[in-house]
Amino acid sequence: MGMLLIAEKRSRSDKYDFLRFIRNNGSTSAAQMPRQGILPHDLIHFIVESALPLRHGFLSQVARGADAEYVMEQVHGDDQSSVDAEAAQVEAIVEGLQTQLWAGDFDHETFIAAAEAACAARGKPAYDLSGVDVRASLYERALALFQQWQDTPFHKSLSLDFNPRPV
Predict the structure, then answer these.
(1) Residue 64 DSSP class
(2) Cα–Cα dist 91/97, whole Å
């Protein structure tokens, strides 16, 4: 259930870059990526969903055939009652990791607190990250991908193979 992600960096003046998803069966989906000054949110999903054994995160849903824009609307919408708990947990972890990237350094306790608070705000239980080296498996990998993204010239793309970890 993998897929290819092609992150296209638009012109210097664009406010959005573009992410194409090419599933193993050849079907596609796409989404805009707002520029944030750090690694884009959807590429943080790549880090999280590649590192943790999850089945219902954003990328996994797209890999199974869901439209990227539809999944984004669902997991970021006001009504979280129909969102799968694991999808909400993934969003919370991604948001927590984003906060750490913005801060410029990793603080484990702050990260865990942010992820737990984001789950609580969605009315979902927090993902159990005990036993996970969050700094190495998430934060440091996000920094490395951010550097790759920074090194990608405007009007060029970065390709990533998404292969979720077995659950």
Answers:
(1) T
(2) 10
**Residue 20 burial (CB < 10 Å; 0-12/13-18/19+)?**
middle
CB 80 within 8 A of CB 124: yes
The C-alpha atoms of residue 95 and residue 45 are separated, in whole angstroms, by: 9
**pTM higher than 0.85, yes or no?**
yes
**pLDDT tens by residue, 42-88:** 999 999 999 999 888 899 889 999 898 887 777 665 555 556 888 88
85's tokens: 């708990």
Which residue is associated with the tokens 């979280």?
Answer: 80
- Single-letter amino acid code for the residue at 117: A
φ, ψ at 81 (rounded to 5°): -65, -30
With a cut of 80, say whether residue 165 has pLDDT above it: no
**Spatial contact of 146 and 101, defined as CB atoms under 8 Å apart:** yes
- C-alpha distances (whole Å) from 93 to each of 23, 37, 79, 80, 106 are 24, 19, 19, 16, 13
For 42, the enclosing helix (H) or strand (E) is helix 41-51
Tally of residues, the chain? 167
Q: Which two tokens stand for residue 40?
A: 């884009």
